[in-house]
Amino acid sequence: MSAAVCIVGIGIHPFGRTPGLSGLEQGVYAVRAALGDAGVDWADIQFAYGGSDAAGNPDSMVSHLGLTGVQFINVRNGCATGGSALFSAQMAIRSGEFELGLALGFDKHPRGAFNALPAEYNLPEWYGAAGYMVTTQFFAAKIMRYMHLHGISCRTLGLVAEKAFANGAHAPHAWRREPVALDAILDAPMVSDPFTKFMFCSPGEGAVALVLASERKARELGATPIRLAAATMRTRPPGSFEVFAPSIATGGGTATATRLASAAAFESAGIGPDDIAVAQLQDTEAGAEIMHMAENGFCADGEQEAWLADGRTRIDGTLPINTDGGCLACGEPIGASGLRQVYENVVQLRGAGGGRQVPGTPRTAYSHVYGAPGVSAVTILQK
Fold first, then answer.
1. Which of 74, 127, 205, 370 ranks highest by number of CB atoms within 10 Å?
2. 89 and 52 in one domain?
3. Which of the four pLDDT bands, split at 50, 70 and 90, describes residue 115?
4. CA gyration radius, the chain
5. Residues 158, 27 share a domain
């Protein structure tokens, strides 16, 4: 029987722009905060998995933290980098090989859109020359199709963004911390139809670190642990329409990397979508949150229109989603983004969310991160 895994410490460097501080230095900040939260020293850490897309090799942070000879493995897996680091770290403890380790991620992206290269995704150069690597266009085309098929309105896209900025106002680590009125969101300049500028997240900076421990070690530390009930990862199945897909199959199934990872996570945890009290879902843009609500099993395709209109995904709703504002309010430093979701869920389960705290202090929390060209990671936490 595999060992149980607990999160005993969390640390975050605020997201946004931090001139004069490298992404790696932000990572060091988060690690030290997580170690302090767990009440352990760097020398106690037996292993680490760290992710970064554009800010250097995570293992080089040992120059700042201490040359202890610790096993440190670098992870890079698109926007799912942070989730991949956590998935790898929890396996090291479940195997019984280690009892105390770190999952961490950081990034520092330049201003502007991500510069994805066709060759990195097994695509020909003409694909990029034709403009198909521009993710804003892909996301817009994908949600246009989804809206047509399932009756989703532009107003619902706006409600997602409005909620995100309202929640982010209460999150000290968020980049965008001012509410934005629905009309301002809908009337803002169009970037890629149907998305206005407030409906996209921005590449940014930030870092997150989580200290993981076996259940025995957590008791030894005297911590009140948050149990990692499930951690899954899946790549895209045949026929799924994912980022940088050159085409969409007609007459194909509805399976996606997210549906596969979600189903596996619920099976592993032995619970279902109705048992989740708070969720963080990948919201690279407003449409992603809407589609991922269905792909993760929380509603049927098309039901999002009523969910958003009724406020069911707000802090006081039946299923609060992206309680810290998600990527829309926090921005997306690729290496840290998926771990930010887990950080936020731990905060919620601890009852430490302040103005964004879900009422009643939830006992279950769900996170989902998605990355190109079709990778999803899901975690379920229980208190």
1. 370
2. yes
3. confident
4. 19
5. no
